Inverse folding.
């Protein structure tokens, strides 16, 4: 009584594309607007001007980026805004052969956590490294944890107030 | 720290989540929509033991789990079981004309189809209304091959 193909029907991508099996498609309309809040709003305004803005807690002697409106150590409001430098050091990195939307990449991307100069130790954000080679061997030869990097910005007239206003971080001479 | 005193300057990020899907109909759905596209008929599958006829068809009987091997072609004519009127589209835009949507059952069959009604005045729509499918001239294998159901003319 076991039906034919009881264990399922293997389908390949081309079976869907060539119409071997019928399909129905749906594209969910999922537009959104996300309110950045006070701190991230000012951070993004800063990026548009080519500045990395951080907040400082005087009680905890901590400077953090991305900025927040309260210190998550003491829960007090952050005391002041400071502009930090657009240089830093690689805290950790990865080599990715897929883009954010799972597109396979010819040239791998190098996402990294960059500790920003002027912030407290260990504080920074994730971005991409660039000018570090086109293949895995080159990248692993050139990128080291702790290496100094500098932001490469979009031209001022093309910035939109987004983290992508920084194109990537590139190696900086010590 | 700043208070929000310039509401117009609150920054928002805009995006579109790339959520989309391609759904295959399965073994029974594939046969159902091929029959609809090629012959303009509705395909049902029958379980003799449970005396049930499924439309849309199934490969297994949900009552006894037996494989269903008896298939029947039905003309796309049935009755309105229940109905409603839609006044907005999927994106909540007001429609100029309300759209009647009905659950349509077929004689001797368990189950049925949800589809639009057309060529009918709203006050004519009622439970028990006899309806027939208006098929698309070009059919591709999908529920869109039925444009809508209209009051039966036979």
């Amino acid at each position: 009584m076991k039906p034919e193909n009881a264990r399922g029907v293997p389908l390949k991508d081309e079976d869907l594309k060539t119409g071997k099996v019928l399909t129905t498609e749906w594209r969910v309309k999922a537009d959104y607007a996300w309110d950045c809040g006070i701190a991230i709003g000012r951070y993004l305004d800063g990026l548009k001007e080519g500045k990395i803005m951080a907040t400082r807690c005087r009680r905890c002697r901590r400077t953090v980026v991305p900025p927040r409106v309260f210190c998550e150590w003491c829960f007090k409001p952050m005391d002041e805004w400071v502009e930090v430098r657009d240089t830093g050091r690689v805290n950790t990195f990865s080599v990715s052969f897929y883009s954010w939307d799972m597109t396979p990449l010819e040239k791998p991307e190098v996402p990294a956590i960059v500790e920003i100069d002027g912030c407290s130790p260990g504080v920074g954000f994730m971005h991409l490294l660039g000018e570090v080679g086109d293949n895995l061997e080159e990248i692993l030869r050139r990128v080291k944890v702790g290496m100094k990097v500098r932001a490469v910005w979009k031209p001022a007239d093309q910035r939109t107030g987004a983290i992508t206003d920084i194109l990537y971080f590139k190696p900086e001479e010590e | 720290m700043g208070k929000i005193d310039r509401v117009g300057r609150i920054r928002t990020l805009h995006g579109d989540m790339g959520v989309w899907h391609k759904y295959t109909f399965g073994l029974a759905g594939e046969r159902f929509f091929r029959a609809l596209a090629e012959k303009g008929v509705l395909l049902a599958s029958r379980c003799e033991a449970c005396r049930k006829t499924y439309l849309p068809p199934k490969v297994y009987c949900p009552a006894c789990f037996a494989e269903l091997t008896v298939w029947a072609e039905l003309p796309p004519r049935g009755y309105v079981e229940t109905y409603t009127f839609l006044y907005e589209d999927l994106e909540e835009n007001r429609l100029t004309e309300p759209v009647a949507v009905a659950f349509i059952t077929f004689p001797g069959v368990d189950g049925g189809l949800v589809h639009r009604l057309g060529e009918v005045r709203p006050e004519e729509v009622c439970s028990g209304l006899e309806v027939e499918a208006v098929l698309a001239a070009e059919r591709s294998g999908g529920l869109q091959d039925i444009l809508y159901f209209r009051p039966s003319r036979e």
